[in-house]
Write a structure and sequence with these properties.
63% helix, single chain, alpha+beta, two-stranded antiparallel sheet
């Protein structure tokens, strides 16, 4: 959204005959790159989550206790992950 707004600002300034501001263009391009990276990270997290759900379901079906647990921890001023691995 921020990248689109920065791009719209550059386009509108060009239409109005205003002076080109390279920092606005750079800001828009940086936002676009960050959006792509974050979409990739989110997609990878979704795939990893689906794999963990499948593996947990498979182990539960066999009556085994889980070998690995990944527990998200979220609070008002912190966020993190706790992991437990059983050998």
């Amino acid at each position: 959204m921020l990248a689109k707004n920065a791009g719209d600002d550059v386009s509108n300034e060009a239409k109005n005959g205003q002076v080109f501001n390279p920092s606005k263009e750079s800001s828009g391009k940086s936002g676009e790159i960050a959006a792509g990276v974050l979409y990739g990270v989110g997609g990878a997290a979704a795939v990893a989550g689906a794999v963990f759900v499948y593996l947990g379901y498979r182990e539960a079906k066999r009556g085994e206790s889980p070998r690995a647990l990944v527990i998200p921890i979220v609070g008002p001023q912190h966020a993190g992950v706790s992991a437990v691995i059983r050998f």
